[in-house]
């Protein structure tokens, strides 16, 4: 019982999910639908998640409304068994998913590629459909307080993603990051004693090692550690924070080099050097000009590049413009796309 209404929880074989659960007609106006329009672009990734992880994928329960009679027959007339039994629903009843339509779509795609998944089950919560307004309210209530977890904690807890494992090892091993990375939140408060976020370091290191062929994860961690420690040698403020001569809030307030946009730009810059050679003896000296970069927010060169309307901006275009600025200091050529973005910036295009 919930809010004075009966509801039922059942385990349904995956093969039945596409057959009995329907979507609202996408051509209907939003006000006469009880569900958002299905975003089909999300389905391949969800289906791939099931197919790639047949032994440890996790899907939470679907929630559905049943527009038809539901008759429950308990195993026992009293005691704990009275809440377990069979629910009988006419085959002409209409099933409407209130929550989980993308999971349902992904299950259908995965079954086409691997029919053996059909014997596995997923929990389904059944409510009695009392009309469109109730179904719409259920959708609103189920999604009202849904909050996507911060990217940092996703990296921290993801043991399936090799890049997540790599960056966790990097934080553990490198003195540049140990104790100075916010492991849970993806944004830092003005008073935080951390310099970096785990999510920012994740994307920056991912950009650094993209397309670099290495034999194993140990080599990747070692190479990433060497790169970031070489960068650290060119940014004295990071060291001063570790020595407690400056505070992390001061550095984040006055400089941009610990922000996600700068880390990502440095990662892309390093990727260019590593593609030529992974030998530190060859690429490390080429990072020396970073010592002469003015990373302070007061530097007007960052206006429109890394700083927009007084705030550090990390959209794709601003990352590219920051990369361009650093390439100029290291005398590295721009790619065709970087030249296009740079030309638009110089013309003053938004």
From TrEMBL:
Domain of life: Bacteria
Transmembrane segments: none
NCBIfam families named among the record's database cross-references: DGQHR, DNA_S_dndB
The protein, known as: DNA sulfur modification protein DndB
The organism of origin for this protein: Kitasatospora cystarginea
Taxonomic placement: Bacteria, Bacillati, Actinomycetota, Actinomycetes, Kitasatosporales
